[in-house]
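re: ur question from yesterday

yeah so i grabbed the chain u mentioned. its 69 aa long if i counted rite. heres the sequnce exactly as i have it in my notes:
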Amino acid sequence: MNFQIRDAITANVHGQSATEIKDIVVDAIERGEEHLLPGLGVFFEKWWQQSSTAEQDEFVQKLEKVFAH
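ran it thru and got these structure tokens back, copy pasting raw so excuse formatting
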């Protein structure tokens, strides 16, 4: 992923509230447009870097279940 995308997305959401960030995520998912996926990827990357190993493990276990169906 291009670092310019990371920087732009980070700058665009800097200082936004949890509600505003949730609205961005929900909107991106509801639209289903592939060009929005890099933005969600940046959100995921930031979350992953700040999460504990236990949180990461719990998340990947949930993903395993989701993709098993």
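noticed a couple things. The chain has one domain: 3-68. also Residues 3-68 form one domain.
anyway ttyl
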